[in-house]
Design goal:
heterodimer, A: about 0% strand, B: Rossmann fold, four-stranded antiparallel β-sheet, globular
C-alpha cells in the first residue's frame, strides 16, 4: 500500500512544480545551467556507448547469420532496427538514469539534508518549481542526445561490419534503407519524450523527499536509479504495446 | 511583534508542543530555550509555516497568519529572514550570489543596485575578502555572517535564528550573538532565536521562553533567569558547575 502513497505524492510534486513560477530572469539561468549539466555533460558517455554498442549489435548479427540464403543487407537492417527502436531510446535512458538520475537525486538530496530547500521555502520560493522545472525543460533537449545515439549507433555498426569484413558498404547502407518506416522513428521519439520526463522527475522525487544524512543521500540515489529504470521499462512495454502491436 | 495563542502540534504518535502562548517583542532578541527534544525547532517551524499547527493562532503584527491566503503568505515570507543551524547557504553559489539571492528573487532592483545593497550588508556583518568564495571555502563563523547577511538583505521585519552559534568556538559564538542583537535593535526587527547555549541566554536574552516537553514552563529575561527559584529552569540553566558557581556568587551578594 506504501506504493500508492509514493505515487500520490509524486503526482502532487508534479502539480506543485507547475505552480507559482520562479522569476523568469532567475529561471533562465537555471535552465541554461541544467542543460549544461544534464545534456551537454552527457554527450560523451552517450556517444561512446552508442558507437560501441552499435558495433556490437552489427557483429553479433553477422556472427549469428550462418545461412548463405540470408541477404547481405540483413546486418544493416538489423542494426538500424535495434538501434532506432530499442537501443537508442531505451538502453541510453537506463544509462542516463544512472548518470543524470543519480546526479539529480544526490544534488537535491544534499540540498535537503543541508536545509537549503528549507531556506528556499522560508524565503517564499516554490522549491518544486525552482529545482525541478528547469530540469524538465532542459531534458526537452533529450531527443537531441537520442538522435546522436541513433546516428552513432548505426555508424558504429557500419564501421565494425564493413571494416571487419562482415558486410560490404553497399549492403550495409542498403540494409539501413530497407523497409524504412517513419513511424518507427516517431515511436522512438514518443518514448524519448516520456523517458525524459521520467528522468527529470523520479530522481527529483527521491532527492526531494529523502530523510537523513550523507549516507541516505547515497541510498536515495541508488533507489532512484532502480525505480527510474523500472518505470522506463514499464513505460517502454506499455508504449510498444500501444503503438506497435 | 509576533504573538502566538494556544498553539499545539502533534506528529503521528506524539504531542510535540501543547498550548503555547507567547509574545515575541519587536526590537528585542527573543530566545526559545529548552533541552534537545523539548519542541523548540517545531515551535519555530510552526511560526515559519513549515509545519501546520493543529490548533491555536499566530499573529504577525496583529495580522493573523493564514496559510491558505496565498498572497498574504507570499508577502509575509518576504518579510522573514532566517538563519539556519547549518547556515543553509547554497553550495553552488558564491558568497555574493548567496546574499543577492533574495534580491534576485523578489526585488525589482537593477543588477548594480542589488550588488550595492549586498555590499552594504556584507559591510554590516563585517565580512571581509570573501565575495567570490564558495561556502565550502569559508569558516563556520563566516558562514553564519553570510547567513545573517542573506537574512537581512531584504530588510525583514522578522528574523528567525535556529541555534545560530552551534558549532562555533565560544568567542565567535558571542560575536555572532552580539551581531544578531545589534541588528535587531538597529533594524527594529522581531528576532526569535532557538538556543540551548547558556552564554547566549546570559548575553542577549531580552526575552526568554523556556520549554519542557513541548510546554512553556517559564518566561522572563536574562536578569530574571539569574534569580528565579523555578526548579526546572535552574536544573537546565545551572546544569554546569561553572554556572552553579555564578548562581551561588549571585546569591552571596548582599
Amino acid at each position: 500500500m506504501r506504493i500508492f502513497f509514493h505515487i500520490g505524492r509524486y503526482f502532487l510534486m508534479i502539480n506543485y512544480t507547475f505552480t507559482k513560477f520562479t522569476k523568469w530572469s532567475v529561471l533562465k539561468k537555471l535552465i541554461i545551467q541544467e542543460i549544461d549539466d544534464l545534456i551537454i555533460g552527457s554527450i560523451w558517455i552517450v556517444a561512446f556507448m552508442s558507437f560501441l554498442v552499435g558495433g556490437v549489435v552489427a557483429i553479433q548479427t553477422a556472427l549469428n547469420i550462418e545461412s548463405p540464403f540470408l541477404p547481405g543487407n540483413l546486418i544493416g537492417f538489423a542494426t538500424r532496427q535495434s538501434v532506432v527502436l530499442e537501443f537508442a531510446p531505451t538502453l541510453i535512458s537506463i544509462i542516463m538514469a544512472g548518470k543524470v538520475g543519480s546526479f539529480i537525486t544526490s544534488s537535491i538530496g544534499t540540498m535537503r539534508v543541508t536545509e537549503q530547500i528549507d531556506a528556499l521555502e522560508v524565503m517564499g520560493v516554490n522549491s518544486f518549481n525552482y529545482l525541478i522545472f528547469p530540469k524538465i525543460i532542459s531534458l526537452l533537449l533529450y531527443p537531441f542526445l537520442i538522435t546522436l545515439a541513433m546516428f552513432l549507433g548505426i555508424l558504429g555498426g557500419y564501421i565494425c561490419s564493413v571494416y571487419a569484413g562482415f558486410s560490404t558498404s553497399f549492403d550495409f547502407i542498403q540494409g539501413i534503407q530497407l523497409d524504412f518506416k517513419v513511424f518507427h522513428v516517431v515511436y522512438a521519439y514518443i518514448k524519448t519524450i516520456l523517458f525524459a520526463f521520467i528522468l527529470a522527475t523520479i530522481p527529483s522525487y527521491h532527492g526531494f523527499f529523502m530523510k537523513g544524512g550523507a549516507l541516505e543521500v547515497g541510498k536515495a540515489s541508488n533507489i532512484s536509479f532502480v525505480w527510474t529504470s523500472i518505470v522506463i521499462i514499464i513505460i517502454n512495454f506499455v508504449v510498444t504495446q500501444l503503438l506497435l502491436s | 511583534m509576533i504573538k502566538v495563542n494556544n498553539i499545539s502540534k502533534s506528529f503521528v504518535k506524539s504531542q510535540v508542543i501543547s498550548n503555547i502562548s507567547a509574545t515575541f517583542e519587536k526590537g528585542k532578541t527573543n530566545l526559545i530555550i529548552g533541552q534537545s527534544g523539548s519542541g523548540k525547532t517545531v515551535l519555530m517551524k510552526c511560526l515559519l509555516g513549515l509545519y501546520d499547527v493543529d490548533n491555536g493562532e499566530i499573529f504577525f503584527d496583529e495580522k493573523k497568519y493564514d496559510k491558505d491566503n496565498i498572497s498574504n503568505m507570499s508577502n509575509l515570507r518576504k518579510q522573514i529572514g532566517m538563519v539556519f543551524q547549518g547556515s543553509a547557504l547554497f553550495d553552488s553559489m558564491t558568497v555574493l550570489d548567496n546574499i543577492m539571492f533574495p534580491l534576485r528573487m523578489f526585488s525589482s532592483k537593477t543588477e548594480s543596485e542589488m550588488i550595492s545593497r549586498a555590499k552594504e550588508v556584507i559591510k554590516r556583518v563585517d565580512l571581509k575578502d570573501s565575495d567570490d568564495k564558495y561556502p565550502s571555502e569559508i569558516s563556520g563563523g563566516m558562514k553564519k555572517r553570510v547567513a545573517i547577511a542573506r537574512a537581512i538583505v531584504l530588510n525583514p521585519k522578522y528574523l528567525f535564528c535556529d541555534e545560530p552559534n552551534s558549532g562555533l568556538d565560544p568567542k565567535t559564538a558571542i560575536i555572532i550573538d552580539k551581531l544578531i542583537q545589534e541588528i535587531t535593535v538597529e533594524y527594529n526587527i522581531t528576532t526569535i532565536i532557538n538556543t540551548h547555549d547558556m552564554n547566549s541566554v546570559m548575553e542577549i536574552g531580552d526575552k526568554i521562553i523556556f520549554l519542557v516537553e513541548g510546554k512553556k514552563i517559564w518566561e522572563g529575561n536574562n536578569q530574571e533567569i539569574l534569580n528565579t527559584d523555578d526548579k526546572l529552569i535552574n536544573d537546565f540553566v545551572y546544569s554546569s558547575e561553572i554556572f552553579k558557581k555564578v548562581k551561588l556568587s549571585q546569591k552571596k551578594k548582599p
